[in-house]
Amino acid sequence: MLPGGGGGRGCSVLLGTCGYSYTEWVDSGFYPPSTRTADMLELYCRVFSTVELNYTWYQMARAEAVARMAAKAPGHFRFSAKLTRTMTHERDAEWPKQVQLYREGIAPLKDRLVAILVQLPPDFDRTMENRRYLAALLDGLQDLPVAVEFRHGSWATDSVFKELERRKVTLVTVDTPQLPGLFPTLDVVTNPALFYVRFHGRNMGGWRSGNMQKKFDYDYSGEELGEWRLMLDRLAHQAERGVIYFNNHVRAQAPRNGQRLQKILAGLG
Amino acid sequence: MYRERSILHFNVADFAVAVERVADSSLARRPLIIAPPAAARSVVFDMSEEAYQAGVQKGMFLNQATRLCREATVLQPRVELYRRAMAGFLKRVQYYSPQVEHGVEDGHLFVDVTGTHRLFGPAQDVGLRVRREVRDGLGINPIWTLAGNKLVAKVSSRLVKPVGEYIVAPGEEEVFLAPLQIGLLPGVYGKELRTMGELQISTIGQLAGLSPRQLMVVFGSRASWLHGASRGHDDSMVMGGVQEAMPVDHEHCFTPDTNDRQEVEAALATLIARVGSELRARGKAARRVGIWLRYSDGNHVVRQASVKEGTCSDFGLRRLAMDALQRAWLRRTRLRSIRLVCDRLHRQSPQLTLFPETSVETRRQEKLLGAMDAIRGRYGKRVIALGRQCPDEPEPDNTDVVFH
C-alpha cells in the first residue's frame, strides 16, 4: 500500500512479473530444481500477488484453459492479460472476430482481471489510420479494464492522454532504455482507477536485436529501483490501485528485481 | 534431473499447393489440383483447400477430381521444386535446433527446442519467429504448435488447420485431449477405429477412461500404447533427418487399365527398383511390403507380406511383393493402378555377422545393386534398370527455382 490514491485513500499496489512459466527460472534458482510447469503458478503465488499473462499474446485465450489456470491461484491473486498479437502486431480484416474470441477467452477471470494490456508495436505510429484502428479496438474492448502501452514516441501528446482519460483507459508507464523514438517514461495517469507500470530493463544493445534473450536481459540495481520510489508515489497519488510488472525475465532477473522493489517500497531496501 | 521437453511442430497445409502459389501468385485463391495431367488415369498428388471443400482428395483419380471441381486448375507435380522449398524451410528451422525430424517434401517437421531457451528465449517465441521467417523468406505460412511431446504437438496442429498456432502447456495434455474426437489421435486408423466405434468410444477421453486390462481384452498388444497415447504420453524422440518410420510409397497408374500379367509385373518391378533404391539411400530395411490394387470399377484390395529380418534388396522386396500381389490379384477386372508401400522400417545394421549367413548368390545380388546405385547416382536414375522393368517415366521437372 502506497500513500495517496483517488479521494485521499491509500493506493493498493500489486507487484509481479510478465509471465511466470519460464524453464529458465528453474535453472536460475527462482523455482526449486525439477519444478514442473504445472506447479509454477502455485510457487509464484507465494511470492507475488499478480501476474501479467503473456502467453495470451502468442495464442488466443481459451476459456477452459484460463479457468483451469485461475483455479490454481489463491482467491486474492489478480491477473492482467496481454491482448493477442492478431489485434496488435499482426492485424488483419478479421480482427473484430478476434476481439470477440478474446473477450470469451478471458471471461473466466471475472473480477480477478486487473487489466487487458494492449501493447502496440514499435512501428505503430500516430497516423490517422492507426488512430482510427485504436479507437475501434478500444470500442471493441468497452466495459473491460484496459491499459495501453505505446512503443512509438509520436503518441506522447496531450490529446492522446485526454482521449484515454475520457475513455477511462490506463496509459502504461514504461521503464525502457533511453533510445530515440521510444515512448518516454511519464507519470501521466489517465485512469483514476488504475496505474500500470512495466519494467522492461535498460539493455540498449539488445533492445532492437530481435532476440528476446538479449532485449530483456537486464538487472536493475537497488539504486535504479530506488529512484522509482518518487515516481511511484506520484502515480499512487493519482490512482486508487496500481500494478507493477517486471519484464526482464532473462535469468530470473524479473522476479529478483520485483522482490528487490518490494523491499524498497516497504522501506526495507 | 527431470526436464520437460519442448517440441515444436510445423506444418504447411497442402505443401505442394503452397509452393506452386509462391511460384505463381496468380494461382492464389484459385482451386488447384496437382496431378500429372497427361495421364488419363493419373491420381491427385495434392489439392488446395478450395478443391478439398469441393470433394477432391489425395489419391483420387484425376478425371473424378476434375468432375467434382470443374473450375480447378490442374498442375503437373514438380517434386524437385517442393524438395527445394522444403530444404529452404529446413534451413531456417535448423538455426534454432539440430534436432529436426521431417518428411521429404511435405512441409511437415518436428523440432526439439528443449534447453535452447538460454539462447533463443521461450519456445513459443521460437515458434513465432520461425513462422515469421518462413512466411517472409519463402512466402509460405506454416501452422506451428508447441507441446511437451510429438503426439500432442501433432494433434494440436490438426485442430488449427490450415493456419494458426496452438500451445499445450506441460501438464495439460490429458485435459486437452479428452474432449477431442478419437480419429484425431495419430496412429489410430481403420479396424481399430471401427472397433472403438462399436464400443461407443468416440472421444479420446473415453478411451483414456479405460484401464490397460480393459484395453488388453479388445486391442491386445496395442493396449499399452493406446492407454498412454490417450493420456498424452509419448516418449518418442525427435529423430534428426527424414522421419525414421516414414514408409516408402510409390504408385503406378496404367494407361489404359489392364489385366495383362506381364504389364502389371513390369510396373511392379519398376516400383520395386524405386523403393529399393530409396531404402538403401536412407540406410533402411523394410520388414513389410504392401500391395494396393485399384480396379477399374473403383474397388481396391490391399495385401501385405512381412518378414522378420528387414530387406532393402530389390530381390528380397520382389519376393515379398510377388507374394502380396498373388494374394491381392484374384479378380479378372482390369487394374487401374498398383501401389507399393514398404513400412516397418529399421536401420540397416552396419555390423557384420560373425559367421557369414548369406549365400554366394545373395552377396552377388548385393554387389550388383550397389554397382547399379553408384551408376544411377553418377549418371541418372534412368541409365540402368533390370530387364523386367517397364520403360521409366520422364525425369522430374527441375524448372522455376523460386527458393534460394
UniProtKB/TrEMBL annotation, chain A:
A Pfam family this chain is assigned to: DUF72
Domain of life: Bacteria
Protein name in the entry: Uncharacterized conserved protein YecE, DUF72 family
From TrEMBL, chain B:
BP term (GO), one: error-prone translesion synthesis
InterPro entries in the cross-refs: DNA/RNA_pol_sf, DNA_pol_Y-fam_lit_finger_sf, DNA_pol_Y-fam_little_finger, DNA_polymerase-Y, Rev_trsase/Diguanyl_cyclase, UmuC
PROSITE patterns the record matches: UMUC
Record-annotated UmuC domain positions: 7-189
GO cellular component, one term: cytosol
GO molecular function: damaged DNA binding; DNA-directed DNA polymerase activity
Family statement drawn from the similarity comment of this UniProt entry: Belongs to the DNA polymerase type-Y family.
Name this polypeptide is given: DNA polymerase-4
